[in-house]
Amino acid sequence: MKRRDDLARPRREAGLGLRYDRSAFGRFAESAARYIGTARFLAIQSVLVVIWLGLNVAVVSLRWDPYPFILLNLMFSVQAAYAAPLILLAQNRQERRDREQAEVDRAVAIRTHNDAEFLAREIASVRIALAGLATGEDLRAHLARVEGRLESPGTTRAGDDGRVR
User: Fold this and answer.
1) How many helices (H) and strands (E) does the chain have?
2) How far is CA 114 from the centre of its chain?
3) 63 - beta bridge partners?
4) Which residues of 66-93 are buried (b: 16+ CB within 10 A; e: fewer)?
5) How far is 29 from 15, CA to CA, in rounded Å?
6) Which of 75, 109, 138, 140 is the most buried (most CB within 10 A)?
7) In the prediction, which pLDDT does 64 show?
8) What backbone torsions phi and psi does residue 38 show, to the nearest 5 degrees?
């Protein structure tokens, strides 16, 4: 007997010549699982069980499933036998979608982080570049000093080089 190393993946099916669309079957499984998990389904099933029990207990001429209700139990077993794999298939498809979405989210988070770091570096370089520039307040202070020198006597003469002393 050949041993498989990777048990996480199902075996390939034997070639019986039957083909089915896995995606369509998966969508069917998801819709069935979605419906089975609703209050509406439980209410409808409960009403049907009450009708089943009522007819089998009260109407003697219609007793197709007498007291131990073996046929009803058999129907529940068949329902459970089909519902469980459908629900598992739907969960597996959802898990795969969640995993893919998590990978996309992780990539977006990395890009966002890198963009934020780039912008932080750019802002820091702009701050450094602006640190040496004169502000409006600096210019006003220098202008006031120059005006003060111009107004004081003896400093308004221009030298041979054209500068004010």
Assistant:
1) 4, 0
2) 20
3) none
4) eeebeeeeeeeeeeeeeeeebbebbeeb
5) 23
6) 75
7) 87
8) -105, 160
